[in-house]
Predict the 3D structure of the following.
Amino acid sequence: MEFKPLSNHVFIEPLKEDKTTKSGIVLPETSEEKPMLGRVVAVGAGKRDEKGNLAPMSVKVGDKVLFKKYGPDEVEVDGKKYLVGSEEDILAVVND
């Protein structure tokens, strides 16, 4: 399924984080927190200002991003979980 978010909304595929600490301790699933890293899979055209001018998005499909822990909403499509939020929920683009 293909997504086309409206306005300044972004679809993010959450990335799994390591379940093992640096010292080798394996963390149980019950200790997992909501992920904060993800890959952008779809972006809207951008938000319009008071004059109707379109402000372009600062992220693009494929970007790895750091986002607010409780900002985006979780949705499930075809058995796969995605996060949907506004551009303001994204804190940074991560360059590996």
Observations:
- The mean pLDDT is 85.
- The chain has one domain: 9-16+34-93.
- The beta strands are 9-14, 37-43, 47-48, 54-55, 64-67, 73-77, 80-86, 90-93.
